[in-house]
């Protein structure tokens, strides 16, 4: 099928019709699945109901969590202040006491005042403290010191606040994961050669600060030290935090053991899918402790959702970028870029970082041209600047073709030769370029020799693709009698490993051209994978491949015959630049889609497929009815 220019880009004008009159920032657009998982998890209490939040590249985790927890909270959140009080019976075992949120300083002051009172004047103060700061642990502590004098309690200080919660956060975020940052630390001091610890040297970690609420932890850094993971798991499973013992060489500090802290917390691990898979494989208990998967998307599917909410996401990115407002055609250009980033016409990216970078660069372009808004010209210029920065290798590669150092024909016809569309990834750059595929035949027993594989330049997937096209040829032409010829196929002037199966359609067409001795057009480049029945299957990087071939043809001069053949299944991934769209509109360049190898062969040869296949049979089948030499065994037994 020959595509018109309207099929080569997403129809952004239809999306613009859904632009709301009023916009509000929303970082959670398109994340319904993940939000539902978080909602379900936050309605659960207990050890076995924590969350793994899976984030693709480009999403700002902190912004998403801020947006979610502004309106949601763990249903079992219960904030307490936590203090350590001197143990009246053992100065090396300070006691951990919880208090109502925001009352730590007042409670310590009240307890100190209580101890200053004579023993026979404490009853009212005792009752007042119990009534004002009523927790089980406080009542236990007050019972222990009820008949104690202040001087009987050993230590440098009476109390130290571990965590005070006058204004607790909706959630706590541990991005730089270290042992001290996550679990806290007990410091030591040296006085006259004696190393010891004291209440004021106990420092809280984020685990203590988030105790009673939600703690989000970056899993990548957590896994760099597997001991941290095991320790976190012990806290979750045991429901309490126990301070680690000092090393034996730390003197008296070795014997300092503060009471453990009861922990009730909801843990959210933040990471990638690879890290999620690693944890599930490494720890057989991981699924028990983290049964809820909040899978955040990188794409917004317009097939399933209205486009209007997406503009609220763009408003969030725009506010974050702090740039000029967008004009109508600026919105249109931005939406096209959003679709290009996803590789699908009907999907829009949620990659905040990429859009943030683009808007800021487009803003600079608009300011340089003294424009009051970011328009299409500013966005196009920003994109062009990005391509220029990354395009050095692509230009060098194209120049080698233009100077005939690498031979690529873009006009005329040839037997057993055509242009395959490939994508090159090198040095951090990715670009499309054509590659000349050739095939030759010789007398043999039907084998197809892949020179790339023989020279150890073929990846596993490419080798599989060649085997599949060999199966197609055997199924099509050698069901009942063997082929009397063998063939070789190769990517000419290719000096690096070839992998992927996207060239198998081109290799198959090239082989059939050689087998039939029928020329194919050099003006058409081709890409696609095939199965054993000749059906054409989708490939990746279709836009880059087309743009790479078009750039070469444009440098040589468009003659109205050049074009590309791609799989029909890749049609909805097309998002080509304006220059190609205009060339297609004017009939200077063509984009064809095919579903079967036979359609591609008819485009390349302009010969009916039955006639072409008959040429192959006449030249290759080991039959006494044709002029080809018969095989050794046929000559003996006929």
TrEMBL record:
Lineage: Bacteria, Pseudomonadati, Pseudomonadota, Gammaproteobacteria, Alteromonadales
Annotated transmembrane regions: none
Keyword Hydrolase: yes
Keyword terms, alphabetized: Hydrolase, Protease, Serine protease
Record's protein name: endopeptidase La
EC main group: hydrolase
UniProt domain Lon proteolytic: residue ranges: 412-607
GO biological process: protein catabolic process; proteolysis
EC number: 3.4.21.53
Active site, UniProt feature: 502, 545
UniProt-listed Pfam families: AAA_32 (PF13654), Lon_C (PF05362), LonB_AAA-LID (PF20436)
Similarity field: Belongs to the peptidase S16 family.
A GO molecular function held by the record: serine-type endopeptidase activity
Organism of provenance: Idiomarina abyssalis
Catalytic reactions of this protein: Hydrolysis of proteins in presence of ATP
